[in-house]
Specification:
single chain; 2 helices; flat; alpha+beta; 3 strands; 12% strand
């Protein structure tokens, strides 16, 4: 089973138009300007929130695997 990755759409708006490498679903997050560092951080968070929602709905096995890895990392960091 291929692993889904987030890819920028060639010819799309820079850092705004993305697609899933497996199902080719388009994800778009619009912003006004990249001048402010806070806007960039908020934009990045919005992209990954939308990507996470896409993985949950369309590629559930991959999402489950990522959640298990995340829980394992957090448990390991609490032990240290």
């Amino acid at each position: 089973m291929p692993k889904a990755n987030l890819r920028q759409i060639p010819g799309g708006a820079p850092l705004q138009d993305f697609e899933c490498s497996v199902c080719k679903e388009k994800l778009s997050v619009r912003i006004e300007s990249f001048a402010d560092g806070k806007i960039v951080a908020a934009h990045k968070a919005a992209i990954f929130k939308e990507w996470d929602a896409h993985l949950y709905s369309a590629h559930r096995r991959q999402w489950d695997s990522l959640q298990a890895k995340k829980a394992k990392r957090e448990a390991k960091s609490r032990q240290s």
